[in-house]
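Obj.: predict assembly geometry.
Materials: sequence records (below).
Method: joint structure prediction, all chains together.
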Amino acid sequence: MSPASATTAREDLLRGVWRENPVLVQTLGMCPTLAVTNTVANCVAMGLATLFVLVFSCVLVAWWKRRIPAEVRITAFVLIIATFVTVADMAIEGLSPTVHAALGPFIALIVVNCIILARQEAFAAKNPVGRAALDALGSGAGFTIALFLMGIVRESLGNGTLLGVRVLPGAFQPWGVMMMPPGGFLTLAFLLLTVRAWQRRHAARREAPRVPVPAVTEAA
Amino acid sequence: MDNPLMILLFAAIVNNFTLTLFLGICAFIGVSNKIDTALRMGAADTFVLVLTAVAVWFLNRFVLVGAPYLRIIAFIVVIAGLVQIVEMIIKKASPTLFRELGIYLPLITTNCAILALAVMQTGRGYSLLQGVCFGLGAGLGLTLALLLMASIRERLDLADVPDVAKGTAIVLVIAGCLSLAFMGFGGLFTAA
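Observations (raw structure tokens):
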């Protein structure tokens, strides 16, 4: 591991997208990943809303880090998140009442999405504003991509459509269960399995000469 | 659907918070290793849920009337405060339980089930009694899901799980099967 100061801006941005993808590698933010991913449209809306909250709250935390006393920092972080979630909630309600209705209570639940608190605590509170913004952007993009993958699998198999447009032939009998709660659990399970298998193969191919490749760790 | 008993049953079984609505998944995956711990976690969750239901009713009735846009902020602050109180009580009353629950106790604050209860209760305009039943039902549902998962995982320790599936992936597959089973309750109360 190189020290944090040695990482480049590019790495700050790209780290969250794949290598430390918040959903697929760190298994954070599972609730929205499971709950609102039955159509691609919902995934995009949820991903963008979370991205918005993530970037703005991380920038604010990075900007105010010296003014927030360490003892109450978690409370302060949560309040900052809640403020931006309120903004996002009102914006979505104003822009598209249909999406607002589809996402239901899960917009308010962005407040308790552990990805945001994790990025603030682990990165934004210790780094300058610009890097915090890049890091948040990367993690938010990684989250959106993970949701998008879930949405593609669930909507195409469950309904035969993508973004409401039919993609599978009419003879295809949709697997209704994919649109329903069990489909969420199963899709995420297989997505995690795929990522894990890919990572192992990748690690084996690298054949680390000095230290054994550490097993994939998971934040519960 | 206004009957408090129906609300309780619906929240506990038909719309099970964890298995049907995907709320509280972190704790569901994190503390479902042992039946004992799962049961206690469920009890702590239920307690916080009921308290939250009462607190949210008061907030909606008396405090947030003129400022509905402060809802999310007010809810999360009240929930954080409640969890802090519960934490202090448990620490005093049962240090063993306090140690066992570990990090998951303060994390009840960010357990989405709690905030979801607050938001859904507000959206449906429940009365105090309805709200308490909703909270109780949600808590029982969470406990049931945790218990089921913990019982299966205790047996899973003896099973030969493929290396790549160990950890979260296999738990999610089991959760999927449980969720499939709970869908069977979907048509249970259609007549009501």
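Conclusions so far: DSSP finds eight helices and no strands in chain B.
To do: check interface contacts against the pulldown list.
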